[in-house]
Design a protein that fits this description.
Number of helices: 12
CATH topology of the largest domain: Metallo-beta-lactamase, Chain A
CATH superfamily of the largest domain: Ribonuclease Z/Hydroxyacylglutathione hydrolase-like
Structural class: alpha/beta
Number of domains: 2
Number of strands: 21
CATH class of the largest domain: Alpha Beta
Distance between the termini: 70 Å
Oligomer: single chain
Length: 425
Amino acid sequence: MNSVRLVDEEGVPQAVALSERVHWVGALDPNLRTFDIILKTANGTSYNAYVVRGSEGVAVIDTVKEGFASDFFARLECVADYAEIKVIVLNHLEPDHTGALPELMKRAPQAQLFISQKAQSMLKGLLKQDELSFTPVVTGDKVSLGDRSLEFLHTPYLHWPDTQCTYAPEEAMLFSGDVFGCHFCDNRLYNDKVGDFRFSFEYYYAHIMRPFKEYVVRALELIEPLPLKLIAPTHGPILRDRPQHYIQRYRQLSTPALHNELRPNQKTLLIFYISSYGNTRRMAEAIYQGAMQVEDVRVSLYDLEGGEVAPFVDLIEEADGLVLGTPTINGDAVKPIWDLLSSLTVVNLKNKLGGVFGSYGWTGEGVRLVEDRLRGLKLRVPIQGLRVKLIPTDDEIIECKAFGLELAQELTGVRESRVINFADL
């Protein structure tokens, strides 16, 4: 049988045994179609919570969204009395995981709450309670339930600063929080029983974890050595079939592919432009020629009019420098440039080199506006943007080549510093 029994004959929610000592006590939200505004959820989602029983007490790991608390408590009561609860663990403080916490703490006042070090300041702000007893933990900290124990792994920024994972060594189970999760609701629960959720898994990574790849890699260094029979995330299927496969996939998604193609110390500079009458294109080509003079910089030139945005985002994520060329129309940069910039919020751009250029007819605000946006995305913009009125002259083409050269030199650290005249800004 493929079904998992989530309710009894009378419709009362039932806990699901993951092992003799571990139960799922979460809730399903099949009708959800948008999560946190930005994520589409074609299959709804689940709010996964778990109970671990030891010889000296019970631990509850995460709770559910407030509107689904009744299902959570009904399932919890199937496998534990409130007086038995010794430990409550929150791997992540987002409301979809903490909604039932205030009521749980009322019902089990003797339980000790365990959260990450970085969650301390966030806890009171989210729950609006001044008197909360909790224990902050870091990697290596443990709590005993007698013949079962829990170990904590500090995995920040996956995807909030407070996130952590909890490992049950005697069960070889990882309660991973949002890591390895996805928004996919299926009442069969297990990854080897539910429908095809690969799209949801990849989509979730792309929108939630991708901006924090460096933190994903750090987390994997803690997780990969663990003996694992099962990964229990807070959303989506419980990964009991080949759990290592999902760890390997995270490793693949978080490892830059371009680095395998570059020489040691080689940098990459991408130049994107769009041009109304060919003037910004002429500037782009000259900037490209100038940047090509620096041997250790791999330079690429792309016309935004001829490509989709999504593949460009993948390129930008792995590049060292980004240069954008835009004309100014109606006092603004043009829409394809803004479309590209809005798509970059899913990747980490901090400290990449940025530059802007463009032709204009009247006042040329587009270049300055795009520069401001690049700074807002945490890029370095050390060289003032280059603007040319209408058709570039021969002298201005030479200036464009010098601009490209200077950007490439900045990227490799050989550019000479100079005094900036603030009257030019």
